[in-house]
Amino acid sequence: KFISSSLLVLLAIISVAKGSPQGINRRLLQNSDPLKYGSIYLISNQYGVKVGDNGGGYLDTKNSGCEGNYLCVSTSPKPNREGSSGHWKILSGSKNVGEIVMGGDLIYLQNQYGNGLSKGGYLDTRNIGCEDNYLCVSTASSSDRDANSGLWRIVANKGSPVRQNDFVFLHNEKGNNGGYLDTRNSGCEGNYLCVSTSPKPNREGSSGHWKILSGSKNVGEIVMGGDLIYLQNQYGNGLSKGGYLDTR
Prior knowledge:
Layout: H1 5-19, H2 21-28, E1 40-45, E2 58-64, E3 71-76, E4 88-91, E5 106-111, E6 122-128, E7 135-140, E8 152-155, E9 167-172, E10 180-186, E11 193-198, E12 210-214
Antiparallel strand pairs: 1-4, 1-12, 2-3, 4-5, 5-8, 6-7, 8-9, 9-12, 10-11
């Protein structure tokens, strides 16, 4: 005749879990760890985002030589399209590896594609007017190619830690006014959406909104609901074993 309050809470949790597993993943188990310098992340655009989809895709490098720079930048529907092309390391000119990224910090974003010293280069602005927007975005082989062209201010709650899954704007500091990282138009470099900067922080439908997500975890860390994972088949003896679960 008597049901304890703790049992009622348990029944409520089971009910929610059965009725909306995506809600459990997104609301209860989302990673909210603070961002740290020297760590590698995915950067997800929020244009047209709906529950269960990728929105505007993941910031990515594909092809080379755009705007006379190093690699071309666009978004991909896949979190890591090829060889860490969707992975970005957050770096600072003044803070040490392991320190927490704070709202208002000035950062460099190093793409992790390739094996060279500069990997896939640093997120950079070069030339104007791409996709009828403000500045063109690509990567440069150096972090500061021209007057802070590779320096970005992470616009979030100033002075507070920036956490994974927070919404942020990324403002380019070229001439102190390089615009906000933005998606506009589609199909650039055979990828998903085109990337440029806009003078407005949110030009259209969250096109200037970005989420920074965990790009890698260490062996032994716990897998959380909502994590992005790779599944490697264990057949064979090669470095990649039986390959990675893929859609094509």
